[in-house]
Amino acid sequence: MVIFFSLDEKKYIEELSGLMKRQSEEDKLMNSVLEGNNKKEGKVIRNAINQGIFSFNPDMMFQNITQNYSLAKNIYGDTLLRELVGEVDNPNIPEVKRKLKSTIKKSIDSLKEKGFLSSEFEINEKGLKLAALSLYTEELNHLISKGLIGERVNKKLSHYGEAEDFRSFKKGDRYRDISLKRSVKNAIRKGHFEINKDDLSVIKRDSRGQICLIYALDASGSMKGDKIDSCKKAGIALAYKAINEKDKVGLLVFGSGIEDVVHPTHDFMLLLNSISRIRAKKETNIGDTILKSIEIFPNEDLTKHLILITDAVPTFGESPEKETLDAANKASAAGITMSIIGINLDENAKKLAEHIVAIGNGRLYAVKNLDNLDTVMLEEYNTI
Question: What residues in the chain have per-residue pLDDT under 50?
């Protein structure tokens, strides 16, 4: 990163945080998403993944829609069907039927022609990247519109502490902590016409140390569709915010077992690609997820915090609730705090969640409105 500041021209140039390290293909895809050229295609692939669909069969889709539209909505989801074929009032009217078949073929052929599907109509790597970038840009725009990125939502809770004093800039300091006003004064006092590195002053802060987070997402069958899409966006919001604040974020995806693991990292693209590929599967095994978090948290003296997001009680194992609480006790003994974001929890699930966060010295958020999920996630991050 290079900073140029001229006292005459008053120009200040700062390189951005570098969260999106993309190769040329990803640059082109990102530009296409930003310009709206592949916006629809990105949503189609994204929603297919959310439904657990990784390949398209135009003939089978047409057959499912025309034979049993209610069943088709359950398989493909309302959102994916709207993106692919629009609203369908009565798919069995001959004229509607013909148009529907043509629309499905045209939409899926377009995905293939643009290189997002293989010759066998399977979502390929380019399609997966498009889905990731679609998810990222949509969530980033949402966060900007809500005013949730930039400064912390709650400044007094910043784990970098409050401003106390000033000192000279040194390697490893955060560029956002540079005091421009103080640096200009230093340059003027020294008779410099431009700010040199030796003129830079940074705000001293009473640091609370580094935070390491693991985002654990329930990918059981009940989470598929729009629900898991909202959870993915919340995970991206957390990763974007925390990594920008120099904290590490890891990922655990769980169903009946651990489906995916990303060890705590500063690599935003790694997390983005992993989060975007999550699809809902089988049962819910919270206990194994907590135990796995103990394994992947670094063995260092820092804040270790696990955030679980789920919509159900654990259903896997001989005594799932007991095994979950035993796991929570082991995590707590290992110095890990735990919070739960519960989506439409029933009474039994809520009681168990309350026990887990009590053991883990964390918080329980009962969420009913999925539109606020990313806001809740950032609120949780700001309380750590």
Answer: 1-22, 151-164, 206-207
Domain boundary residue among 146, 174, 195?
146
Residue 227 sits in the same domain as residue 316: yes
| pLDDT one-digit tens code per residue, 236-270 | 999 999 998 899 999 999 987 888 999 999 999 99
Number of domains in the chain: 3
Residues 180, 253 share a domain: no
172 — alpha (psi -120 to 50), left (phi > 0) or beta? left
Cα torsion 364, 232, 302, 151: sign: negative
pLDDT tens, 121-134? 999 999 999 999 99
Q: Give the residue numbers spanning the domain of 179.
A: 1-23+163-205
**pTM of the full structure:** 0.76
Domain boundary among 205, 220, 239: 205
Listed as own residue / partner, the contacts of 27-30 with beta carbons closer than 8 Å and 24 or more positions apart are 29/126, 29/129, 29/130, 29/133, 30/133, 30/137
